[in-house]
Amino acid sequence: xxxxxxxxxxxxxxxxxxxxxxxxxxxxxxxxxxxxxxxxxxxxxxxxxxxxxxxxxxxxxxxxxxxxxxxxxxxxxxxxxxxxxxxxxxxxxxxxxxxxxxxxxxxxxxxxxxxxxxxxxxxxxxxxxxxxxxxxxxxxxxxxxxxxxxxxxxxxxxxxxxxxxx
Length: 166
Prior knowledge:
The chain is an alpha+beta fold and 166 residues long. It has five helices and seven strands, in the order E-H-H-H-E-E-E-H-E-H-E-E. It has helices spanning 11-24, 33-37, 41-50, 96-110, 125-133, and strands at residues 2-5, 53-57, 63-70, 79-87, 115-121, 137-145, 148-159.
């Protein structure tokens, strides 16, 4: 599995993996399949251009995982935010999630960040297990899920150092 930092020209690959993630795991994301299916090419290009995005690609050049990093509005300047992490079911528990998170960690550290943060929807225990093993800790900060206020998500944070996540 190759972890590839997407360029704007990879917009279709990013779109395909993201839509698959929303199709197969809709309950864990803040966005919806219907919303993102309506995005045009220009939106996908802007998304990749404005926020570093990595795709896990297999030998056949099929996307099997995805993650992006943003500077979340309202967060400290030295924090980078992990968004949209997803790994295809057929390659889970094979280190793909680790590798995607490590790409984010390395880029955030090189960019001068001191923390990584993310939001986890209550009940997404598989993600919570991965993030605990990767050194993230709960903050206790909770908020309603933007697309479904009946659900709640919690902010998690990891202090950065030069060491890989493993």
